[in-house]
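To the team - adenosine monophosphate complex, inputs and output below.
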Amino acid sequence: MKIFTKTNKLIQYLSQYKSESIGFVPTMGALHNGHISLIKRSVEENDITIVSIFVNPTQFLEGEDLDKYPKKIEADKKVCSFAGVDILFIPTKEEIYFEDELSFIAPKTKGFILEGYHRPGHFNGVLQVVLKLLNITKPTNAYFGKKDAQQLYLVKKMIKELFLNINIVECEIVRDESALALSSRNEYLTSAEKERAKSIPNSLKKATELISKGELSSVKIKKEIAKTLIEVKVEYIEIVDRDFNKLEQIELGNTIILVAAYVGTTRLIDNIWI
Ligand code: AMP
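Output:
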């Protein structure tokens, strides 16, 4: 596995690949099995796999966890090497950002609802860094998790609307034995908080059970989810279609149910695709 920290060096190195398929997995590191599932899929589906580890400052709001975001760079290198990654890109922020950059603004509605409403400007930074990383790596396929459903939607929208010739591969959510969606931020949780966090996947499970019994009213399903979300501080519960339009009624095959909640001081998100 080759490791690059300099953008120019990586671009120069990649110029040798003319006909190979390139898979790209952008991450913020502290890799877990969720990341590894994306990486393994890329390794299977491409000649070359590039993983980036970059805790992107522009997608964090003032007062968020940028400074304490978990860092495990040595372990991450081993994970990547073991998973068959060809190229690991670990840039500093100076390698990615310049002075007085052009502004980057996410779509005015879909980029500022749900996650974008509670973290205003978050998706500006996400799309900015994703576009830069895609321009650097020029992948055939780029791998994103459904865990960050709104991010995935906005990245696909950007690819389409900026006419980029990149295939976005949507990857399933990986969960732990208690069904909690894996996240680097789960490391912040104490064991008591982990117990309380279980009510998040439980609430989504409850929703699918109701739907399978024929309940299609979003209002009723949201109420039941709220009842199941005990000992966490709910930020939002929302039911949208795959284009992030709010749904009054569940549409089978076109629905995402999303939850964001604080467990202690840790903010967790989860969702389920119906
Ligand atoms: P992050 O390092 O949190 O920015 O995540 C990097 C990529 O991994 C994103 O595309 C995430 O959606 C994806 N990801 C994170 N957690 C999971 C998970 N539990 N299952 C599947 N994909 C995930």
